[in-house]
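S.,

Sequence below, as promised.
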Amino acid sequence: MKKGSSLSTAGLGGRGVVEAVTVRAALDPYLSMRALAAYSALSRRTLQTLVNDPMDPIPSYRVGRKILVRPSEFDAWMARRRDRRAEALARLAAADAQPLLAARPKREARRPVAPPPYSPRERATDAQRRGG
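The prediction came back faster than expected:
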């Protein structure tokens, strides 16, 4: 008998007649795209794009025009995506970045910019202000 199952022969004198069968199993229902959008906090359009992604699609089942996804498979798919980025970050952290920073060309110091020369009209206005 499977774990989590029980048979009841109560009231029958133990003659082996089954009165009730109780089966306990972890539920992993299929989610529609609408339900998956609520579950994942992603839009339905984004999920549709990810289901049709040729490189790493969300594992899904098509029944006619309906697309169904198991939450456990979606969670595993998300974990694969997270691990891939974590590995890339770990590789970058492990690599010594100092040679890259040292090889980067340094910026030249900016020279102060001289003010533009006065136009003849501005000179005349400036001379009038000074009283000359």
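The mean pLDDT is 77.

Coffee later?
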